[in-house]
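Researcher: Good morning. I'm working through a list of sequences from a screen, and I'd like to move beyond sequence-only analysis. For each chain I'm collecting a predicted structure so we can compare shapes side by side. This is the next one on the list. No need for commentary yet; just the structure.
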Amino acid sequence: MAGMIDFYRHHRWANDLVIVACADLPDDVLDASSAMTYGTIRDTIVHQVGTQEAFVMTMNNQTGASAPPPFADLRARSRASDEELIAIVEKRSPDEVLTGDFGGRPYRMQLIVPLMQCIYHGTEHRAQICSMLSAHGIEPPRIDIWGFVDVFAT
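Model: Good morning. Structure tokens for this chain:
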């Protein structure tokens, strides 16, 4: 999947920046409710990382539920699933067909579907977290594509 790899490199980089930006926030900021987003900053990051892990399990034909990651483990677990996503993109065909069972219902889909959903899902929740940081007067990290290019341009 040449060419697609940079989407996942950006995804890994942006996930890491957001987690680092939130790592030392006080509990009152991490747990402040926001009606316009998924929930609190803590809930949103835990959900984003946990869901990504579940997608990776699906793409690797692994079964079972993964427990939501503890906040202290988010960075390591995010990095691990980000690296696994990159490995999947490097080694497998987007046309590969995945089959399995979800919620008692069988599914059949191409690998590209959960790969695309990981990018979309991560982008959406990172944007929510950055909005919540701004609402608390905290400068969010620059996680857009231009920021990525600025850091990694050769």
